[in-house]
Amino acid sequence: MKYELQPTLPPPPNTIGVVGWARKHLFNGPFNSIATILLAWLAVTLLIPVIDWVFISANWSGTTRDACTGEGACWVFIGQRIDQFLYGFYPREETWRLDLSFVLLLALILWLAIPKLPAKGWAAVLTLIVYPIVAFYLLTGGAFGLVAVDTHEWGGLSLTLVLAVVGMVASLPLGILLALGRQSDMPIVKSLSVIYIEIWRGVPLITVLFMASVMLPLFFPEGMNFDKLLRALIGITLFQSAYMAEVIRGGLQAIPKGQYEAADALGLGYWQKMILIILPQALKMMIPGIVNTFIALFKDTSLVLIIGLFDLLAIVQAATNDPRWIGYATEGYVFVAFVFWLFCFSMSRYSQHLEKRLQTGHGNRA
Amino acid sequence: MPSDLPNVNERPSHEKPIEEIKFWNDPAKRAMLFQILLVLVLGTFVWFIGSNTLNNLEQRGITTGFGFLNQEAGFGIPLSLIEYAETSSYGRTFFVGLLNTVLVSVLGIIAATILGFILGVARLSDNWLIAKLSALYIETFRNIPLLLQIFFWYFAVLRSLPSPRQSIEFLGSYLNIRGLSMPAPVAEPGFHFVWIALGVAIVASWLVTKWAHKRQDETGQIFPTPWVVTGLIIGLPLLAFLVTGAPLSLDHPELRGFNFRGGMTIIPEFVALWLALTIYTAAFIAETVRGGILAVPHGQIEAASALGLPKTRTLRLIVIPQAMRVIIPPLTSQYLNLTKNSSLATAIGYPDLVSVFAGTTLNQTGQAIEIISMTMAVYLTLSILTSLFMNWYNKRVALIER
Predict the structure, then answer these.
(1) Which CATH number fits domain B79-160+267-350+388-396: 2.60.200.30, 1.10.3720.10, 3.30.450.20, 3.90.180.10?
(2) Identity of the residue in B52, B152, B387 whose CB atom sits nearest the CB atom of A333
(3) A260, B8, B148, B363 — which has fewest CB within 10 A?
C-alpha cells in the first residue's frame, strides 16, 4: 500500500515549450497553418532584400558618391549632409545655441515626464513661461552678445522642432480658453467658440498655411511685415488651438459634476473654481490626448515646405536634387521617415503608458 | 475654551439692512457686460482687418468680387472628369479641381476601408505572426508623415519607372514614367442591357432578402441569402452580356512619338496620392476597428455560444453590429481626414481643388481672399455634412436603456 502522493506527470510534450507555443499561436487549425506559412514566406522574401539594402550591402563611409559602390543604400549621402539636415543654414559656429536650447527642452520634458522627480509645478512654469523666452533669445540672438540669426537661415530638424514646440506651447492657453468658452453658459461666448473650433477643424492645414502666407499680409497695415516663419507659426497656432480645445473639452467633461458643485458650494468664483479645482484635475487626464495631438502636429509640420520653409523633409527633398547626389532620393526619404518615426513612435508609446497609468487612478473613466 | 470664538447662542442681528448686490457682483449682469465687451472688441478687430484689407487691395490694384470666375483660364489641366480646355473659365477650374478631389477621396476611402478592416481584424488574430505583421504595418505607417509617403511613392518609386519607349508591357497595358496606359472599354450599342440586368439583379436581391427574413421569422429556416445575392448581382449582368453578344470593345493605347495615345491613362500623380492616402489612412482605420471590436464585452460572445450560435453567425449577428456602433463615428472622421489630406496633392501636382484653384488660379488672378474663402468653404461644407450625419447616426444607434 502506498500513501504518498504520486508526483504530477509533466504536461504532454506538444503543449509546452517552443513546439507547444507554435501549435497554439501559429498552427491551430488548417487555415492558420496555411496563413502562417504563406505570410512567413512573404515576410522573409520581402524583408531580406530590405535588410540587405539598409545594412549589409550599404556604404557607410566616404565623402563623395564614388564611395557608393555596392548594391545597397548610400548612407554617405546622409553622412555628408547631416549638419544641414539637422541645423539648416544656421551659421556653423552658432549651432551650439540650437543644441543648448534642445538639451534644455529635453531636460525640462524629462523633469515633467518622470513621475519620481519633485516640484512638477515649477517645472511646468519653467517650460511654459521661462523657457520660451530663453529659447527665443538663444535662437534669434541679437541680444546678450549673441549674433543675430535671421529666420531665413533656420532649417532642418531644428526648424521642425521649433514649429512643433511653438505651435504646441502657444496653442495650449488659447485651447484652454476656447474649451472653457465652449462649456460656458454665456450664449455669445459659447457660439463664438463653437464657430471658431468648427471652422478650423473643418479645413485642411494646407489651406490654413496658404491663408497665413497669402492673406495675412493683407490684413495688417502697410509696412507691418511678418516674416515667413512667423506667418506659418500664426497659422499653425490658430489651427492647433481648435484641436487642443476639443481635447481639453474632453478632459473637462470627464470631471465628475460633484467637483463643480463642490467648488460652487464653497463659494469659489468662476476662475477660482477652474484654476484651483477643475483644470488641475482635467489637465492630468488630458495629457495622453495632448500628446496625441502633438504627434499629429509634429507630422503636419512637414507641410510648411509648400509655403517655402525648409523643414527636415524640405531640406532633404532639396538635397536629393543636388546634381552631385542625384539618384539617392530613397536614402533621403528613408532617413527622414526614420527620424519622424522615432519621435512619433516614442511619443505614442509614452501616451499609451500614461493612459494605462491614469486608468487605474480614475475609476470614473469608463 | 478660547474666548475669541463668537457666541453661538447670540443670534445675528438683522438690524442692518441687506445691501443691494452691486451690479458687478451679479453673475447675470456680469456675463452680459462681458459678452458686450467681447463683441465690441471682436467687432473692432474685424473692422480693423477689413479696412486694412480693402486699403491694401486698393493699393495693389486688385478689384474684389467674383467677376474673375468668368474670365478665360488659359492653362491646361492634365486630368479632368468634365469637359475642360484652356479656353474654359476660372469658374470651371473650380469644378474640375473639386471633382478631382472627390475622385481621389472616394477611391481612397474605399481602398483604405477594405485594407483597414483587414488589418484591424488581423491585429486581433489568434495567429501570432498575422497579429505581429499587422501591428508592424500599423506602427510604421501611422508614424510617418503623409507628405513624406506621397513624396516617396512619387519621386522615389514612380519616377524611377522607364520612359514611354522602354515601357513595361503586360496584358496590353504599358507602365512608364508618364503613368499606366491601359486599354479602355468602349460600350457598343446593346451594352445598356447589361445595366438594365444589373438594376433587375439589385431589385431581385432586395426582394429575396426580404422574403428570406420573413420566412426565417415564421419557420426558423435559414436561407443562404449571401450566396444567392452574390450570384444574382454577378450572374444576371454576365448573362445579359453574353446573350447580347459581348457588346464591348477595347481601345488599345499606342505609342506615337514620345507618348501613348488612345486607351486610358492613369497619371502617376494620382497613383502616388491614392497609394499614400490609402496606406496612411488604413493604419488609422485599423486601430479604430480594433478598438471597436475590443469594446464588445466578452460576455456577449460567451452568451452567443451558450445559445449555440456558430462562430460565423456570432460574428455577423452579435459582434459586428455592436462593434459598428463604436467604429462608425471615428471612421467618418477618418474619412473626413482623408478628404482633407487629399489637399496635399498640391505638393506633387495632382490637379485637385487646392492645387488647381488655390494654386494656379490664385497665382494667375491674385484674388487671394475670394479663392481661399471658396476653397475653405468647400472643405467646411463637407465637414459640416459629416458631423450632421454623425449626429443623426449616433441618435439612431444610441442604446435605448430601460
Answers:
(1) 1.10.3720.10
(2) B152
(3) B8
